Write a sequence for this structure.
């Protein structure tokens, strides 16, 4: 009798476990409005036109620069933004909103390099500022690599 009851409570417990595992508590948080500008309005015009010191066009850079960008990405950004740039890095589930999905070409086409630089430098909650963990030059260097995640 006792053991039957124990069995019953174990199976009830497991049922709850299963329900919980599939509940929204385990679902990743959503990405927050990826197309909405992140640079505050008073700085937007300035950062939209800000250019990298080491390249003109972030989609057309040397392979050395791309490799340097990839290694910065792998060292720091990958934890949140993920190997494939989809915003699903190992730490992403712990954040209240998801990191940007860099494979989203609508997002990529909307942002200038200067706008990306602003967020890398100053952060955008819950992303922390990355400078001075990386230098400003490194912030510019990682941008062409971010651009490679959009295949169009
Ligand atoms: C602690 C996790 C974390 C790390 C580490 C991180 N990011 Fe982010 N990042 C985020 C989150 C979360 C967002 C979304 C913020 C938002 O929606 O405003 C984001 C957004 C961005 C954006 C989008 C900006 C825009 O205009 O919408 C860029 C670009 C970016 N990150 C670049 C980087 C780069 C480059 C690195 C590495 C140097 C990096 N991030 C490291 C969490 C992170």
């Amino acid at each position: 009798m006792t053991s039957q009851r124990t069995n019953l409570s174990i199976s009830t417990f497991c049922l709850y476990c299963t329900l919980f595992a599939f509940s929204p508590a385990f679902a990743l948080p959503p990405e927050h409005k990826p197309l909405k500008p992140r640079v505050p309005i008073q700085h937007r015009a300035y950062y939209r036109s800000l250019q990298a010191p080491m390249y003109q066009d972030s989609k057309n850079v040397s392979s050395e620069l791309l490799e340097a960008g990839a290694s910065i990405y792998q060292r720091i950004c990958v934890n949140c933004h993920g190997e494939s740039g989809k915003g699903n890095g190992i730490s992403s589930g712990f954040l209240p909103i998801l990191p940007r999905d860099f494979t989203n070409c609508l997002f990529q086409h909307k942002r200038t390099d200067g706008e990306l630089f602003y967020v890398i430098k100053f952060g955008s909650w819950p992303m922390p500022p990355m400078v001075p963990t990386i230098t400003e030059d490194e912030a510019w260097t990682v941008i062409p690599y971010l651009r490679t995640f959009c295949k169009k």
Remarks:
- Residues 32, 38, 76-77, 79-81, 91, 95, 97, 99-100, 111, 115-116, 119-120, 124, 126-128, 130, 134, 142 surround heme C (CB under 6 Å).
- Confidence is low (pLDDT under 50) at residues 17-25.
- The two ends are 66 Å apart (CA to CA).
- The domain at 31-147 is CATH 1.10.760.10 (Cytochrome Bc1 Complex; Chain D, domain 2).
